[in-house]
Write a structure and sequence with these properties.
Number of strands of chain A: 6
CATH class of chain A: Alpha Beta
Helix content of chain A: 40-55%
Structural class of chain A: alpha/beta
Low-confidence stretches of chain A: none
Helix content of chain B: 25-40%
Largest sheet of chain A: 6 strands, mixed
Largest interface: B-C, 39 and 43 residues
Shape of chain B: globular
CATH class of chain B: Alpha Beta
Number of helices of chain A: 6
Strand content of chain B: 15-25%
Oligomer: heterotrimer
Mean pLDDT of chain A: 94
Number of domains of chain A: 1
CATH superfamily of chain A: Pyruvate-ferredoxin oxidoreductase, PFOR, domain III
Chains: A alpha/beta, B alpha/beta, C alpha/beta
Mean pLDDT of chain B: 97
CATH topology of chain B: Rossmann fold
Structural class of chain B: alpha/beta
Distance between the termini of chain B: 59 Å
Number of domains of chain B: 1
Order of helices and strands of chain B: HEEHEHHEEEHEHEHHEHHEH
Chain lengths: 182, 274, 381
C-alpha cells in the first residue's frame, strides 16, 4: 500500500489527537507497517475545530500531512464543513449522526453513526467518544487490524480505564458492523 | 590579621571604581566574611550582572561569572541548582537587580534558592553616567531626571521579603562592623539571603545633587542609617529621614535545591513501592 | 529520510525525540519557559530528569532560562533549553553571552510564524536568519536542522557534540510540523551513536589559562568548583578571561569567535543529496519542507524531469561551496521555504549566478505541499 490517509476531526477536547496516535501506533508497533500522525489545532483547549491526521504506508512517508483523504471522521458540524474539502472522490465519510446534519456535496461513501450517543448511553461516559470512533473507523477502513488497535488502546489509555475503553472500542466495532451489514 | 592578598586578584588592580566609591569597602567586608565562615575559594562562585558593583568578580580570586545586565540571579540559579555543593554569591546593583533584572530578583526570592545576594544600592546608574534608577529618591536629580525625579522609589529589602526571601538585611559602607556581621549571617543562611548595601556614588549621584565630598556622603550614612532596634525606640520626629539597618527579616522556609532533592528521593521511594 | 539504526522501535513526536536525544547525549540540565509549539520538550524532560540524576527548572522567563543553562553548563553539566520564535528573540542576548564566554549549550527553536506572537500553533521557518544574526556582534554560529523524529533525535545529539567540541552554543531549528509529527523512530542502543564530552584541563590549576589558544583554537574551560578558579565574562577579554580594552586583544577575541567555527566548517557542515547526481533542477529545502521536496522530486522524475534534492542539515555554517558545485551542474535551483526566501538569499550567494534560483515560499501557516514544489519544477525545467 502506497499511502492511506485519514483525518479525524471534531472540536478540541474530544480526544481526536489521542485517537490519531492510537491508530498510528497500532499500524506501526502492532501491525509492523509505517505510519505518521500529525495534528492541527487552534488556540482553544476546548471547542474550536481540531484535527488529527494519520498517513499509513508500507514504504517511507515523506510528506506527513494528508494530501487526498481516503477517510474523514467528523464529530461536529463545524469540523465536517471545514475539513471535508480534501476528501477524495469515493472516499469514506464517517459522521456523528447526532451532531452532523449537513453533509458536504460530493460522491463519498457516507456512514452515519450516533457516536457520542453510543459513548454516553451504551458505554456510559462521553469521554470515550474518541475510542468509540476509533472502533468504527477501524472496522470501516479495514487498513489496521482490529487486534493491533486493541493493543494500542490498552497501551495508551490511563491505568484503571482499560475496561471502559475496551467497551467503547467494542461498541464502535459493533456499530460499524451494523453499518456495513456484516 | 587577614591577608587580603590571599583573596584578591592583585594583577587586576588598580580597580575601576572612583575615589570615594563604597564598592571596595564591600569587597573587603565580603572577604572577611568568607574567611570567617571558612568558605574555600574553590567552592565559592560569584555571579554578577552589569554595572559598577558587578565588576567585583574581576578582583576576587574565586570562581567568577560576569553575566549580562540584570541576569546574574538567573545564571546563578543555574550554577547553584546544577551543583548545590557550591556557595553562590550574586553581586548586583539597584538598577541591575530591580529594573532590568526585576523579574529574576523576585523569582529567586520566591524560590528561596540558596543564593546570597549582595545588592549595592547607590540610588543611581553610576557606570552609565548617572541616570535615574528605581531607587533614586523622589525629587533627586539624575542625568535623565534633570528637573528632579517624579517617581517613587522601590524599597528593595521590602520587595525581597514580600517575594519570599528567607533572610533580608540592610547595611551600609560606613557601619562596616555591622556590614561584616550582616554579610556573614547571609552567607550562613540556607535560602535566598539579601543584603542591601547602601554605598555612595560621589561621582554620578552626590556631585549632581550637591551633596558634597565623598566624606560628606559617608557622614550622611553615619547620621542617617540607624540600626532598626535603635530606630524603633526613637520618636516619630527623630525617625524622619532615617533608614533602618540590620537584620530586617529572618525566617526558616523550604529552600529550592533541598525541595528538589526531596522530590528526587520521593520518586525513588515511589519506584521501590511500585 | 535517515538510515534506520538498530534498536527499539517507538512512535514519538519530534519534540519528544528531541528530549530523548538530549538524554542520550548526556544532557542532565534543562531550563525553559512555556511556549507553543515547543512545550512538549519541557514536559517530557520534567518527568525524566529527576529520575536520571538530572535537573529541571521552569524559569520565570525565556531570558532567565538561557541564563540558567549557561550557569549550569559552567559547572560541567550538559544543558538544554527549548523555545519558539518570540522566546528565541528573548534568548538572543544570553546566547551572545554563551558565544562570547565560549560556554557550550544547546538551544532548540521549534519554529512558528512571526513576527511577534504571529501564529503560535502553525509552522514556519522564519527564524533561520535570526539564528545566524539574532545576537548582536560578529561571531560564528552553528545551527542544525531536522526533518523527521529520527533526525531530530540524532541532530540533538550532534548539537551537544558540536557544542562540547567547539565550546559554543549550538542552535537546532525544527518547526511545528516536525515537532508535532508522531512517527516511527528507533532509539539506538547506548554507545551506538558517538557522544562527545567536554575536554578537561591538561594542566594543574597554577598553570591554567582558561582561554589560552590551543592547536584546534578551542579553549578548555574547567568546571566551576574543581579547583580551577577563573573569570568568565561577556566583555571582550584576553586569554586569562579578564576584560581588556587593548585594541589588539579586542580584535584577537572577536576574530577568534568567527575563526573557531569557520576553520572547522568542513567538519560541521552537512547536507543530504537525493537523486542530485544527474539532476537538472535542484530543489533546496530543509526541515519539514524537505519532506515535501522529496515527494516532489520523486513525482518530477516520474514525469520525466531530472530533479534532485539538496537538503542542508547544517544551516550555519552554510554550505556555499557545495551550492556552487551543484550550480555548475544544474539549470536551476528551486528553494522552497516556509518564509519569504531567507535561505534562498544564501543559495543565490553560493550559486554565483551559475544557476538560476527560483523560490517557493509560503507564509500562511499551511505547509508547502509536494504539488507546489512540483509545479515550480515543471515551470522552470
Amino acid at each position: 500500500m502506497d499511502r492511506y490517509e485519514m483525518r479525524l476531526s471534531g472540536s478540541g477536547g474530544q480526544g481526536l489527537i489521542l485517537a490519531g496516535k492510537i491508530m498510528a501506533e497500532a499500524a506501526v508497533i502492532y501491525d509492523g507497517r509505517n505510519a505518521v500522525q500529525t495534528q492541527s489545532y487552534g488556540p482553544e483547549a476546548r471547542g474550536g475545530a481540531s484535527k488529527a491526521e494519520v498517513v499509513i504506508s508500507d514504504g517511507d512517508i515523506d510528506y506527513p500531512k494528508a494530501l487526498s483523504l481516503d477517510l474523514l471522521l467528523a464529530l461536529t458540524q463545524v469540523s465536517c464543513t471545514k475539513y471535508s474539502a480534501d476528501l477524495k472522490e469515493g472516499g469514506i465519510l464517517i459522521v456523528d449522526s447526532g451532531l452532523v446534519k449537513d453533509l458536504p456535496p460530493g460522491n463519498f461513501q457516507v456512514y452515519r453513526a450516533p457516536i457520542t450517543e453510543i459513548a454516553v448511553k451504551k458505554v456510559g461516559k462521553a469521554v470515550v467518544t474518541n475510542i468509540v470512533a476509533v472502533g468504527i473507523l477501524t472496522k470501516i477502513a479495514g487498513v489496521v487490524s482490529e487486534d493491533a488497535v486493541r493493543k494500542a488502546i490498552l497501551a495508551r489509555v490511563p491505568k484503571g480505564t482499560e475496561e471502559l475503553n475496551m467497551k467503547a472500542y467494542e461498541e464502535g466495532l459493533k456499530a460499524a458492523a451494523e453499518l456495513i451489514g456484516t | 590579621m587577614i591577608d587580603y592578598y590571599e583573596y584578591i586578584r592583585a594583577q587586576n588592580f588598580p580597580h575601576i571604581w572612583c575615589a570615594g566609591c563604597g564598592d571596595g569597602i564591600v569587597l573587603k567586608s565580603f572577604i572577611r566574611s568568607l574567611k570567617k565562615l571558612g568558605i574555600a575559594k574553590d567552592d565559592a562562585v560569584m555571579v554578577s550582572g552589569i554595572g559598577c558593583s558587578s565588576r567585583t568578580p574581576g578582583y576576587i580570586d574565586i570562581n567568577t561569572l560576569h553575566t549580562t545586565h540584570g541576569r546574574a540571579l538567573a545564571f546563578a540559579t543555574g550554577v547553584k541548582f546544577a551543583n548545590p555543593r557550591l556557595k553562590v554569591i550574586v553581586v548586583t546593583g539597584d538598577g541591575d537587580a530591580t529594573a532590568i533584572g526585576g523579574n529574576h530578583y523576585i523569582h529567586a526570592a520566591r524560590r528561596n534558592i540558596d543564593i546570597t545576594c549582595l545588592l549595592y544600592n547607590n540610588y543611581i546608574y553610576g557606570m552609565t553616567g548617572g541616570q535615574v534608577s528605581p531607587t533614586t529618591p523622589r525629587g533627586m536629580n539624575a542625568s535623565t531626571a534633570p528637573f528632579g525625579n517624579i517617581e517613587p522609589a522601590f524599597n528593595i529589602s521590602g520587595l525581597a521579603q514580600a517575594a519570599g526571601a528567607s533572610f533580608v538585611a540592610r547595611g551600609d559602607v560606613y557601619h562596616v562592623q555591622q556590614l561584616d556581621k550582616l554579610i556573614a549571617a547571609a552567607l550562613g543562611k540556607t535560602g535566598f539571603s539579601l543584603v542591601e548595601i547602601l554605598s555612595p556614588c560621589p561621582t554620578a549621584y552626590g556631585r549632581r545633587n550637591k551633596m558634597g565630598t565623598p566624606v560628606d556622603l559617608m557622614n550622611w550614612l553615619k547620621d542617617n542609617v540607624v540600626a532598626k532596634d535603635k530606630l524603633d525606640k526613637m520618636t516619630e520626629e527623630e525617625q524622619r529621614g532615617k533608614v533602618p539597618s540590620g537584620v530586617l527579616w529572618d525566617v526558616e522556609k523550604p529552600e529550592f535545591c533541598g525541595e528538589y532533592a526531596k522530590l528526587v528521593e520521593r520518586l525513588k521511594t515511589d519506584k521501590k513501592k511500585a | 529520510m535517515s538510515t534506520t539504526p538498530k534498536g527499539k522501535v517507538i512512535m514519538i513526536a519530534g519534540n519528544e525525540a528531541c528530549a530523548e536525544g538530549a538524554l542520550y547525549a548526556g544532557c542532565r540540565f534543562f531550563a525553559g519557559y512555556p511556549i507553543t509549539p515547543s512545550s512538549e520538550i519541557a514536559e517530557h524532560l520534567c518527568r525524566k530528569l529527576p529520575r536520571l540524576g538530572g535537573k529541571f527548572i521552569q524559569m520565570e522567563d525565556e531570558i532567565g532560562a538561557m541564563g540558567a543553562v549557561i550557569g549550569a553548563s559552567l559547572t560541567g553539566m550538559k544543558a538544554l533549553t527549548a523555545t519558539s520564535g518570540p522566546g528565541f528573540s528573548l534568548k538572543q542576548e544570553n546566547i551572545g553571552h554563551a558565544v562570547m564566554a565560549e560556554v557550550p549549550c544547546v538551544v532548540v527553536d521549534v519554529q512558528r510564524g512571526g513576527p511577534s506572537t504571529g501564529t503560535p500553533t502553525l509552522p514556519a521557518q522564519m527564524d533561520v536568519q535570526q539564528a545566524r544574526w539574532g545576537s548582536h556582534g560578529d561571531h560564528g554560529v552553528i545551527c542544525l536542522s531536522a526533518a523527521t523524529a529520527q533526525e531530530t533525535f540524532e541532530q540533538t545529539i550532534r548539537a551537544f557534540n558540536l557544542a562540547e567540541t567547539y565550546m559554543t552554543p549550538v542552535l537546532l531549528l525544527i518547526d511545528e510540523i516536525v515537532g508535532h509529527t508522531t512517527e516511527k523512530m528507533v532509539i539506538p542502543e547506548p554507545g551506538a551513536i558517538e557522544v562527545v564530552n567536554r575536554a578537561k584541563p591538561a594542566v594543574p590549576p597554577a598553570k591554567y589559562v582558561p582561554y589560552a589558544p590551543t592547536e584546534s583554537g578551542i579553549p578548555v574551560l574547567a568546571d566551576f568548583g574543581t579547583g580551577y578558579r577563573y573569570n568568565v565574562t561577556g566583555l571582550c577579554h584576553t586569554e586569562t578571561g579578564f576584560p581588556t580594552n587593548d585594541p589588539k586583544r579586542i580584535e584577537a577575541n572577536i576574530l577568534h569567535l568567527t575563526d573557531k567555527i569557520e576553520r572547522h566548517r568542513d567538519e560541521i557542515m552537512r547536507w543530504k543529496a537525493f537523486r542530485l547526481d544527474d539532476a537538472k533542477i535542484a530543489v533546496f529545502a530543509y526541515g519539514a519542507v524537505a519532506r515535501s521536496a522529496r515527494r516532489a522530486v520523486i513525482e518530477a522524475r516520474e514525469a520525466g524531469i531530472a530533479a534532485g534534492l539538496f537538503e542542508p542539515t547544517t544551516l550555519w555554517p552554510f554550505p556555499y561551496e557545495a551550492i556552487l558545485e551543484t550550480a555548475g551542474r544544474v539549470k536551476a535551483f528551486v528553494a522552497a521555504e516556509m518564509n519569504l526566501g531567507q535561505m534562498a538569499r544564501e543559495v543565490e550567494l553560493g550559486a554565483k549566478c551559475k544557476a538560476e534560483v527560483h523560490r517557493v515560499n509560503r507564509v500562511d501557516g499551511d505547509p508547502i505541499t509536494p504539488k507546489q514544489i512540483l509545479e515550480k519544477i515543471k515551470e522552470v525545467a
